[in-house]
Amino acid sequence: YQECFIQKTAAKDTLMKLNDKISDGEIHSSTIETDLKIEREWRQSLQESSQRDKEAKAELYMEVENLKKIKEEYEALKTSHELLISTVENQERTLEELGAHLSESKLKMVDLRDASKTLRDAQWAPDKEATNCMRCEKEFGISRRRHHCRNCGNIFCSACSDNTMPLPSSARPVRVCDTCHTQLLQRYSNSEM
């Protein structure tokens, strides 16, 4: 009987130790399950964060590609703009030159028209009909000779026609009266402005 009691007590001790071990194991298992659950949630959170980062990275990559295209378009537009500015400047210079040539041509046309009109209007006055200078009205004689103005065709004394000017009708300077000399000088100075 006593042996049975000892065995029973030993079995109870063993049972208590085993219960303690099971209880410790359950606590340990519960702690591990909690840690595992936390790690799973943490891993899930990291995976979601990683996925968001990948998506953000893809968006940034697309944005960078778009910015590269925009930069290339900007460079092309800049080059085109510089070329247009250069073309406009060249055209403005050309227009200025054409304007200057046109003004010069207009003045030459006016001069030619005036010269042509003067030549049409000017009639060579006959020597015999002129007895006095058309400007100073002094009488012609042996000491005061008659001279034709090559511009207007009238007859003047030497003092009133002592000027020479190049005319469209003459390659070298010819005699002109004082009045025509003044008019021609004014016309030439206007055409040089």
Automatic annotation (TrEMBL):
Pfam families for the chain: FYVE
GO CC, alphabetical: cytoplasm
Give UniProt keywords alphabetically.
Answer: Coiled coil, Metal-binding, Zinc, Zinc-finger
A single MF term (Gene Ontology): zinc ion binding
Q: Sorted alphabetically, which CDD domains does this protein's record hold?
A: FYVE_RUFY1_like
Stretches assigned to coiled coil: 57-108
Transmembrane regions listed in the UniProt entry: none
Stored InterPro entries: RUFY1-3, Znf_FYVE, Znf_FYVE-rel, Znf_FYVE_PHD, Znf_RING/FYVE/PHD
Q: What name does UniProt use for this protein? A: FYVE-type domain-containing protein
